[in-house]
Amino acid sequence: MTTGTILLVEDEDKLRHLLKRIISLEGFQIHECANIKTAMRILETTPVDVVLSDIMLPDGNGIDLVSSIRQMQLPTEIVLLTAYGNIPDSVRAIKNGAFDYITKGNDNAKIIPSLYRALEKVQLQKRIEHLETRIGNQYATFDHLLGNSTGINEAKELARKAAPSKAAVLLLGETGSGKEIFAQAIHSASERAGKDFVAINCSALGKDILESEIFGYKAGAFTGAIKNKKGLIEEANQGTLFLDEIGEMPVDLQAKLLRVLETSEFIKVGDTKVTKVDIRIIAATNRDLTREIEQGRFREDLYYRLNVFTIQLPSLRERKEDIPLFAQHFLDVFAAKSNRQITGMSREFTEHLKLHEWRGNIRELKNVIERAVIVSNQSILSLESLPFEMKLQKAGSRQKNGTFDLAGIEKMHIQWVIAYTNNNKSKAARLLNIGLSTLYRKMEEYSMKL
Ligand SMILES: Nc1ncnc2c1ncn2[C@@H]1O[C@H](COP(=O)(O)OP(=O)(O)OP(=O)(O)O)[C@@H](O)[C@H]1O
């Protein structure tokens, strides 16, 4: 039984393989990588409950990873692996928001219990957020959906048409492209608006927990089932159930869901009689379901039941014209929230936003602007307030403009790092992973101002 998803970040191959084995034996789903850059990529596209990361990594420090994860506002906890001598760093990491640290070698037996505790915290947090949303009952409406590009307008038009009917809706789009906010808008514009909108991410939980969460169980259904538990289907009765990442739902649960769609009935785990419900289902995925069907991972009959209205949400890359509008909106929101007098963005800042790939789509843009508002000390957002990796992306574009030779790229890279550190050469040398004297030698070689 899988109980959660772990991202293991460790550059020592042997140790990583060993940890992977220990963790997989517990039934956790596991992703692995050897550096921060890949870890960030995985985190932008894949839901992860707990990151287990080494502190010393080839391209940076596990403590910076903690800060980045906190900035991305991911529902993810971090457990750090540290060498004995780095305990002060680990204490600092905990202050920055890490969940726990474990001393490599000595504390191996503590890894699994710590992962379980971190996972429990993540799941509790998600439950609290879910309940808060329900109590506030503040679901988004179509008025909250920003964007003027053709792709988003077409999606909004179809969603408005789908809203009043009881038919299922299938929302397709990359992570952070707005599937949940669209689902809420559809719910708000339907006659179910006064009732609950209940959301669950099918990829976040293992099969057994997912089944219990969605369908509920009878007391005594399995060890630990002390009393009856209402499933989310029942909680969403008369309202809308939003099934995010439906492509990740195990096939036997798909059969149970199909039955709900066809008969409005289901059987709780450990029950013998059927329970009746009146729900509308909105499902979402970033997977290609037709391919999943071909590979036997998704039921074709369920697919046809769900895709009565299929709405494709464009990625932010496909609607770059919307980027300034979103950026200004998030800027206004975060500036007001933090009481800052920041009114706009420099031309270069906006240009950089348009160059970026936005794998995390609007969620990522929102986080980048929030970060920029926090770090900026001017009245308009400038390049300095962008994360380091985003400043670097200009390398790709300049390459297109003609700079192909390695020395040219190295010179540009050094210039950016120096600008990033506000001309602090020691810090720049550290980030570049070269000695200070080498930095000065290279600056002289490239005729850069010392
Ligand atoms: N059109 C939009 N207008 C305003 N805000 C938006 C829009 N689309 C997305 N957002 C914001 O972007 C963030 C991500 O959106 P959302 O959670 O709906 O994406 P998602 O596709 O469901 O992501 P995931 O697949 O990772 O669950 C949210 O904060 C949401 O409010």
UniProtKB/TrEMBL annotation:
One of its GO terms (molecular function) is ATP binding. Keywords: ATP-binding, DNA-binding, Nucleotide-binding, Phosphoprotein, Transcription, Transcription regulation. The modification 4-aspartylphosphate is found at residue 54. GO terms for biological process: phosphorelay signal transduction system; regulation of DNA-templated transcription. Residues 145-374 form the Sigma-54 factor interaction domain. Gene3D superfamilies: 1.10.8.60, 3.40.50.2300, Homeodomain-like, P-loop containing nucleotide triphosphate hydrolases. CDD domains: AAA, REC. Residues 5-119 form the Response regulatory domain. This is DNA-binding NtrC family response regulator. It comes from Chitinophaga niastensis. The lineage of its organism: Bacteria, Pseudomonadati, Bacteroidota, Chitinophagia, Chitinophagales.
